[in-house]
Specification:
alpha/beta; Rossmann fold
């Protein structure tokens, strides 16, 4: 696994974060070192998906990046299920294709390169996964995107949503962000890497409060919604149609 050093070099002007080839090459390491309890939330996604996956349906991973979640799900769901990964980054999808072949994935699968800010082609879905993805979709389009997910989902299907979130209280929000940066320091990131990535994400990653995400889900066609994971400013929600 290549080590993430994307923000190791000092830059005078920090461009907006982009899921380009340089990022795709180190993305697995970036996730493991930047996302608290990443392996545990992947395990949780697996056991939730196993309960909701229905034979002869589709499982979607929106913002699938390098395909890690499908690899984890391959042995947990029925054989006659299709995996469909959607991501706007061709570099990420090329990496995903390589990983799927390397791991000899048994399920039928396909990857679609498209902008997630549009109405998505969801159909016959028993499970849809958005792991740290909705936060990158422009707020103006989020309701339309979630509504298109709900329309293409079968009854009693589920959406698994994991996001960075904001606290309703500004003091708590600053504390949670401080604790998160402490976590990143423990993973070996230095102060410049943390600061430069924060600047790169500033206008790209726009988090909501958990209450806002819950309202969005319930107003977009989902009947039930609850939190299954929370760590400071990270939150996992399960919504059922």
């Amino acid at each position: 696994m290549n080590k993430d050093q994307v923000f190791k070099k000092k830059e005078d002007l920090i461009p907006d974060f982009n899921f380009k080839k340089e990022v795709a090459e180190v993305f697995d390491d970036m996730l493991n070192r930047s996302v608290p309890f990443y392996q545990e939330t992947q395990r949780m996604i697996g056991e939730i998906t196993a309960d909701f996956a229905v034979e002869e349906t589709n499982i979607y991973d929106l913002g699938c990046s390098t395909g890690t979640t499908f690899i984890a799900l391959d042995k947990l769901v029925p054989d006659n299920i299709n995996f469909i990964g959607i991501d706007y980054s061709r570099d990420m999808l090329d990496k995903a294709q390589d990983k799927m072949k390397k791991h000899n994935i048994s399920k039928k699968y396909k990857f679609i390169c498209m902008d997630l800010n549009t109405e998505l082609p969801i159909a016959n879905a028993s499970v849809v996964i958005m792991n740290l993805t909705l936060q990158f979709i422009r707020p103006l389009w989020r309701k339309r995107v979630v509504e298109s997910i709900a329309r293409g989902m079968n009854e009693r299907g589920c959406l698994i949503l994991i996001e960075k979130v904001l606290s309703i209280d500004s003091t708590l929000n600053r504390m949670f962000i401080k604790y998160y940066y402490n976590f990143k320091r423990r993973q070996g990131y230095d102060e410049m890497e943390i600061a430069q990535k924060r600047e790169a994400l500033e206008n790209v990653l726009i988090p909501y409060r958990p209450e806002e995400n819950r309202t969005l889900l319930l107003e977009s066609g989902f009947k039930e919604c609850d939190t299954f994971f929370k760590w400071y400013n990270f939150c996992g929600m399960l919504a059922i149609k």
